[in-house]
Every structure is written in structure tokens, then in C-alpha cells.
Target: Cytochrome-c peroxidase
Amino acid sequence: MFKKTVPFILFLFIVLLSYCTLKSSDVNKDVKAHLLKQLDTLDNSTIQLLAAANSTEANLQQAFLNTRIAYKKMEWFSEYYAPTTSRELNGAPLPEIEIEETKVFEPSGLQVIEEYIYPYDKAAKTDLVREINSFKSSLVRLRVILNDTEFTQAHILDACKLEVFRIIGLGISGFDTPICKTGVEEAAISLAAIADVLKLFGENPTLQEQINAAILYIGKSPDFDKFDRAEFIIRHANVVSRGILNWQNQLAIKPLNTELALHNSTATLFDKNAFNVKHFVNTAEAIPDARKIALGKLLFFDPVISGATRACSNCHQPQLAFTDGLPKSVALTQGKFVKRNSPTLMYAGLQNNQFYDMRSKTLEGQATDVIANKDEMHASVEDAAHRLEKKPEYFKQFKTAFPGMDSVIRPRYVMIALASYVRSLAPFNSRFDQYMRGNSRKLSKDEINGFNLFMGKAKCGTCHFTPLFNGTAPPVFANTEAEVLGVPADPRAKHPVVDPDEGRSFHSKISEIKYAFKTPTLRNIALTAPYMHNGAFKNLEEVIDFYDLGGGAGIGINLDNQTLPADKLNLTVKEKNDIIAFLKSLTDEGVK
Model:
């Protein structure tokens, strides 16, 4: 009896395996066919947009919105499988800077087209037509990529989940619809698009109902300024992304072998352990662990690094969210100060560039630079390593943290240990985080309204991206952005002038990024005053007023390359207070 059963079980296993393979192949074929039809629609919409350049402003704008809708139906694919082409189709309307190659690439795509037609100046028709034709050319490249793409079920589901995260972090903030302000309405289009794709995997009534509920919620209040983003995220977006992951588990589809900025097991963008710190580390040796972190913490608070003049903690104090409370940090020379404000180190491990001018790609590089800086420590990592070798207790801990170490403490071990400690400073346990994970009692009505203003009318969320609230853009978190704000040297001067610090262009001499500075995290911002790279603003009230007026342009500082929109926000006193209340909710518990 047993011997007869084994072949049958083996036969059944082979049949099931063949069925699963066939099903995967069918999904691949169906998804590709589905996308090709949508790409045909997008092509036709672009042709109509081109023709509308000869029509009225109203007709042109409607054709533009139709093209945006057609693109949004494919965005989940384009952003995931063709990110470079996606930037050409719907990237930010700002030049792309390649610092290493000293090159500037002009922007293109829907956001550039948007600027030409809101309002439409027919004198710029030639430029508009050029941009639309450029868009069409990018669609040709997208078609080639689509035809060459081999889909897998795990990748498709991952792309759909990331599209939900993109809606939260970029879509409903108006990041790619700054003028037409259709980001909320387009979120419904994107959700419907992934719903159609998910149907190709089979029936899942629960997940489809969750997506439909999210779309219906948007339909009830699509007004950009009035949309309740907090409720939408908690009651709908988080539910949908969690539902996609649950269904993948139910279908027994193995997660991807590789992980990028977010762990594959991430259910919502606000999961406590969503971020994969390894993604932001350049070498396997630098991947942090408990031993490296413990060693780095000791080094951080020990002046041995500088040769007994000062420790890292002198300018980065834990009770001030690892800042020092000064406009500009104290230099080694008595009575002197360094060039810039001391930035928080919290969440610094989750960005792609360090320093206000973004000159270092890694935390290890930042540590080396600070230690060597004549105004900060005026030492060297090499000398620090030699000093540490002579301390038996430290030598023992280095040997524990770096088991492959021989009888010498290498300078890179010092840098890696310090960087590992800094990478550990990302607790994600503020009241805001707890609210986003379902504890509705953690935020007040005013704080919730402040978040909605932050992500909507006040436009803060288009530069300080949720959930890191820095310039590292979701959902891929591959780039950290900088902005030209027109920060004054003295905002209290009768006639303010721009601060002379050239920021990013100091090293590259690229004029487009003169006065550009990295967009820092706003987490724990209640503890990190004064603000800006030069500590110009004493409190959050002054910062909000500055943005409300339109940055430097609003106080009489005229910069051709200001990236912050110069339009006044027209925030009321109540709205400003609510935004500040929200910002204070970003303080991590245990940091005071």
C-alpha cells in the first residue's frame, strides 16, 4: 500500500509544480499584454496633447490631465522597472546634477509640460511642442523596456506595494502635481491600476474591497487642500499595502532574494523596522551589528579620538537630538565658531549624502572629515587608531567587533565603529509613528490637522518626504535631495541678504546648485533649534513664517535658481500653529 502511494504523491507534486509554473507564466503574459494596451492609450493621449497645443488653454489642460491619468495607470511599472525613463517622463522640473562629472542635465517630462500650460502662453508653444515630443521619445524607450521585461510574481507584487508607498510619500503630497494639484485624484487612478494587475493573480475579494474602499474615500473628498491624508493612510493605504503582503504569503510566493531600502517583509511604510540599514552601507564590513554599535558609542563620547581636545558628543548632544543648540558650533580656537550649524545625527544613516553640502557619500567619510577638520577636531583617524591600540580594553573591543583584525587597529575600523553607532540612532518611536501604527490617541486634532497641512496646503511634504521627513525620496530612497531656499544671513536685518555660504557649489562650482543645501530630517526638530545651515532662525515660528512668505524671494532675496516655490502659502495663524504642533509630535520618546 505504501509503495503504491509514493509514486502517486510524486505524480501529484509534479502536476502541482507544473500548474504553478504555468500560472506564473500566464501572469507574466497577462501583465505584459495589459501594460501594452495601457501604453497604447498613453501614446494616443500624447498625440492628442500635441494636437491640443493649437487649441484653447482649457482644451490643452484637459488633454494634459488625460495624459497624466494614462501615465498613472502605468506608473507602478514605469517607476519600478524603468526608473531612468520614468524620470524622463515624470521627474521633478529641476536640472539633474552629476557632481562627479560636473554635468547638468535639463529636466523633461510631465512636470515640465505642466509649467508651460498653467497658464498657457502661446508664445512658448515651440518649447511646449519640443517637450511633448521629448515625452513621446521616452515612451518609445519605455515600450522597448516593457517588451524586454520578464515579469515574476514576486516582482509584480513588490511593485504594487511600492506604488502604495509612492502614493503616500509623493502622490498625495502633490510632489509631481505642484500646479494642477491633482495628486489626490490621481492616487485613485494609481490604486485602480494596481487593483487591475492584482486581479490577474486570481480572486481576492477582501483585498479588492480594501482597494475599492480607498478609491471611494478619495472620491468623497478629492479636494487637494481639504483631503484628510492622516485618515486615508491609516484606514486605507496601510490596509492595502498590508493586504498585498498578506496575499503574497497566502499564495506562497517567495519574497525577493534581494532587499533594497525597505525590507521585503515591510507591510506598511510606517513599520518600526521597515528600513534596511544595509542598503545605506557601502561595504559588507561596515554593516552594523551590536558589537560595532557598542564600540562606536564608546568612541563617540570619548575625546581619545581627537587626542583629548573634544569628543563627538561635544557638538552632538543626545538630549538635543545630537545637536548642540548653537547657531554655529564652537571651534577649537577660543572665541571662534565653525562655518555651519551642527546637524542632528538622528536618522543620518538613512540618507545618501552627509553634511549640509552633501560632500560625503558615507558616514565613514563624514567621520574622517570631521576628525581631520582643523576647526572641529584637528586630528586624524590614523593617529586615533594608534592611540586606541595602546589601550588594552579598547583593543579587546575592536577585536570583538572586527574578528578578522590582526594586531593592528586599522583606521577604517574607527570610522566604521563611529558610523555604526550613528546608524543605530533611528528609533521611529515618536507619537506620530505610534499614531500611524494604529494608536489613534497619540495625536491631538490640531496635530492631525498639522500633518494634513504639512502634506497638503503648506507643501512641506514635497521636500521633507514621509516617513523620514528628510530629502530622501520614497519609496526607493535612492536619492537625497537638496534645495535652494534663499536663507538670509540675518533674517532680522532691515534689508536681508542671502547667506554667503555657497553650499553645494563651494566644491563643484556648478552655478545651478549655488546656495543649495541638503534637505535635513524634521524628526526631533523641536529639540534642534536654531534652524537652517547657519542657525539663522531661532524658533519654528520664524521658520514657518519664512516658508509662508516664499523663502528668500518673499523677503527680497532674488535668486534665479531658488528651488523653493516663491508663491506665498497664505497660512493662517491657526494653521501655522497646527503645523508646529505636528512637528513637535515627531520627537522620539526617550529623547528630551
User: Anything to note?
Assistant: The chain has 20 helices and four strands. Residues 1-22 have pLDDT under 50 and may be disordered. The CA atoms of residues 286 and 416 lie 6 Å apart. Residues 2-51 form the longest helix (50 residues).
